[in-house]
Amino acid sequence: MKRTPLIAGNWKMNTTTDEAIRLVKEILERLEDDIRTEVVLCPPFISLYPVFQMLSSEHIFLGAQNLHYEESGAFTGEISAAMLKPFCKYVIIGHSERRQLFGETDEIINLKLKKALQAGITPILCLGETLERREAGEAEEAIASQLKSSLGDISDIQSMVIAYEPIWAIGTGVNAQTGEVNLIMERIRQTISDIFGPSSADRIRLLYGGSVNSQNAADYFSCETIDGALVGGASLKAEQFVSIIQQAAKAGF
Ligand code: PGA
């Protein structure tokens, strides 16, 4: 089965609302209407609504960068799935910055995944190994174990997306080689197949993330194991981001 390619832009803590509106305007101006790729924009929470009002394409969706796993209540500064649901088709969960800077564990990520799935928001689950584990030759093991412990008690992952983002490649300009990425992607799909069966494994989309830009994107899209990209820095530049989307569409996967 052919999987629809997906290109997601993670804006992180960048852009004021005015800047977000300008960036989306520029992206929309540069992008053809009939792109054969699914595009997800993940601006900061405060810009979700204004950006939502600008989107009318059947191919471009909004994603949140995080959510809280509780329904509602005394959780100052947090955002619930119900608040995001009217605007967001996707939510990024378990980004390495959340894990490393905000103490998110696999247990917390598991709760967030369950909440997103329950609310009908598709999680983009991020997995990634440290440089230390990679240099110790343990990258595949690290990813498989992160994946397994994030998925406890989850029975339906059909709609989930997984982003493999080696931590050493994020924001560093050092992007992972396709050969290495292929091995990890195969391991992720095999792990999904072991837990949920081959048809789920065949359906799930796997994105690569970590210093993707318009120069290296095509290499990733030429790999059968890769269904798209989660783009950080380059998603803040309309020209670069649109070029990445166009290259994904051209590759056709
Ligand atoms: P980068 O970030 O493209 O700037 O490396 C990717 C990410 O953190 O999702």
Could you describe the 3D structure shown?
The chain is α/β, with parallel strands linked by helices. The chain has a single domain (about 5-250), classed as TIM Barrel, CATH 3.20.20.70. The chain has eleven helices and eight strands. The mean pLDDT is about 95. The structure holds 2-phosphoglycolic acid (PGA). 2-phosphoglycolic acid binds near residues 10, 232, 233 and 234.
Main sheet properties: 8 strands, parallel, barrel
Rough shape?
Answer: globular
Low-confidence stretches: none
- How large a portion of the residues is in β-strands, by DSSP E? 15-25%
Question: Which second-level CATH architecture applies?
Answer: Alpha-Beta Barrel
- Structure ligands: 2-phosphoglycolic acid
**What would CATH call the class?**
Alpha Beta
Order of helices and strands: EHEHEHEHHEHHEHHEHEH
What is the mean pLDDT?
95
Summing up helix and strand content along with how strands pair, one would put the structural category as alpha/beta
Number of DSSP E strands:
8
The radius of gyration computed from the alpha-carbon positions, rounded to a whole number of angstroms, is 17 Å
Q: How many helical elements?
A: 11
Query: CATH superfamily assignment?
Result: Aldolase class I
Q: Which fold name corresponds to the CATH topology?
A: TIM Barrel
For the largest beta sheet, what order do the strands appear in spatially?
1-2-3-4-5-6-7-8
Number of individual domains: 1
